Amino acid sequence: MHVTHLSLADFRSYARVEVPLDPGVTAFVGANGQGKTNLVEAVGYLATLGSHRVSSDAPLVRMGAERAVIRAAVTQGERSQLVELELNPGRANRARINRSSQVRPRDVLGIVRTVLFAPEDLALVKGDPGERRRFLDELVTARSPRMAGVRSDYERVLKQRNTLLKSAAMARRHGGRSLDLSTLDVWDQHLAGVGAELLAQRLDLIAVLQPLADKAYGDVAPGGGPVTLDYRSSVGAEAGPARTREELYAQIVEALAAVRKQEIERGVTLVGPHRDDLVLGLRSMPAKGYASHGESWSYALALRLASYELLRGEGNEPVLVLDDVFAELDARRRERLAELVAPAEQVLVTAAVDDDVPGALVGTRYAVTAGEVERV
Ligand SMILES: Nc1ncnc2c1ncn2[C@@H]1O[C@H](COP(=O)(O)OP(=O)(O)O)[C@@H](O)[C@H]1O
Ligand SMILES: [Mg+2]
Question: Please, what are the domains in the chain?
Answer without folding.
Answer: 1-113+322-376 (3.40.50.300), 123-315 (1.20.1050.90)
